[in-house]
Design a protein that fits this description.
The two termini are 42 Å apart. The protein folds into 3 domains: 10-134, no CATH class; 137-146 and 220-379; 153-216, no CATH class. The chain has 379 residues and is an alpha/beta fold. The protein is globular and about 80 Å long. It has 11 helices and 15 strands. Mean pLDDT is 85; it is low at 18-34. The protein has a 5-stranded mixed β-sheet with strand order 9-12-13-14-15, sandwiched between helices. The protein has a two-stranded parallel ribbon with strand order 1-4. Strands 2-3 form a two-stranded antiparallel sheet.
Length: 379
């Protein structure tokens, strides 16, 4: 891989913080010291133990299984000496002006942290570029990873006789099973029925938190169940919008289904939605999730909404080169099951439009599904 290409500086933040929430109106106050980015003086960089830094990074490379990544002590030193071109460092001023042996060791640890993040970002950028260049379009068929399992399995402790009896009665009673397939529950297992979903049943635990029984593959969680119900309700109530369109939905299995490598993470959105006309397919990736622990708008799963448009352009060229006439449009959305008021301090915004510009929608918004499908239905 090449280290001469320009990448955005990595961020290392070692500033101690005290955070407090005064009220729901005041979204959060963060008291910080030393928030101005610092640069490590080159005279200190030259004084570090670069043999130790080099072998630490080699061990890091081995752990990551980056067999095609090659670097030397000189390259590592050059990266750090790019100063603000390589890193944004926030820490107490004395961290970058060591005087004792222990303080030099601390600075060495900071430099190792910078280099780990820099190499990781560079490697993943190269991997991401390779993935985009080699991504192709193919027909979805039964050999796809989402269809590897043939049956759902419900595992129950034999001591839980009431659950065992309820599951066994489903196997014996066709009428009960048919009701389950159309969205009812036996108190333990339910089918989240939607006739647009590519396979049935789509099972979920009625009591998601129960440890007495389990479903394999893992059943839908509460946010996923609600999303499917909201999607079904919208389609049922807006049939005229689908007169000249076909719709298909698929629950996307982690590590088995359709995944994207964004910057540093592999992301498998929970659902794939196809809305198809004669000359165009809109493919929408939707992921219902809580955003309490998200990193604001820079969260990579949110950033997929931008990256996926680069993929769309690349695939358009491939289809054109193949002589394919059907156009493909790609979009990615995060459906927040967390209310907006609970994340505004993290995202630094209370404006709905700010979220929607980045394809973040809210389950609490009654227009959520309409906004999700707007890109495909407003053509």
């Amino acid at each position: 891989m090449r280290f001469d290409e320009q990448i955005n500086p990595v961020e290392i933040d070692l500033v101690p913080r005290i955070e407090r929430i005064e009220s729901q109106v005041q979204e959060g106050i963060s008291a910080q010291s030393g928030s101005i980015p610092l640069v490590i003086d080159h005279k200190y960089i030259e004084s570090l133990d670069w043999s130790h830094i080099y072998f630490t990074l080699l061990e890091f490379k081995t752990q990551k299984e980056w067999s095609n990544l090659i670097f030397s002590k000189e390259v590592l030193r050059e990266i750090v000496m790019k100063d603000s071109g390589a890193y944004t460092l926030r820490c107490p001023h004395e961290y970058t002006h060591p005087r004792t042996f222990e303080e030099f060791q601390r600075l060495e640890g900071i430099v190792i942290s910078i280099l780990k993040k820099y190499l990781q970002k560079s490697y993943h950028r190269c991997k991401n570029r390779w993935t985009k260049e080699n991504m192709d379009v193919m027909e979805l068929n039964e050999s796809h990873g989402d269809f590897e399992f043939k049956t759902f399995r419900v595992t129950v402790n034999q001591k839980e006789t009431d659950i065992v009896e309820a599951i066994n009665s489903l196997k014996k009673d066709g009428e009960k099973l048919e009701k389950l397939y159309h969205g009812e529950t036996n108190g333990f297992v339910e089918n989240v029925y939607f006739d647009k979903h590519i396979y049935q049943p789509l099972l979920a635990k009625h009591d998601e938190d129960s440890v007495k029984y389990g479903i394999s593959p893992v059943g839908l969680n509460a946010g996923e169940k609600q999303f499917m119900r909201d999607l079904k309700d919208y389609v049922d109530n807006n049939g005229s919008k689908f007169t000249d369109r076909k719709m298909f939905v698929l629950r996307n299995r982690p590590k088995k289904g359709i995944g994207f490598f964004v910057e540093t993470v592999n992301f498998y959105p929970d659902f794939v939605i196809w809305i198809k006309t004669n000359d165009k397919q809109h493919i929408i990736f939707a992921d219902p999730k809580g955003l309490v622990h998200a990193e604001g708008f820079k969260d990579e799963k949110i950033q997929l909404h931008r990256h996926i448009k680069d993929i769309e352009k690349h695939l358009a060229k491939k289809l054109l080169d193949k002589g394919e006439k059907q156009e493909i449009s790609l979009d990615s959305f995060i459906i927040s099951v967390t209310p907006k008021k609970d994340i505004r301090s993290t995202f630094k915004s209370n404006e709905l439009s700010t979220y929607e510009e980045r394809n973040v929608l809210f389950r609490e918004d009654k227009e959520c599904i309409r906004k999700l499908l707007r890109c495909a239905l407003d053509d």
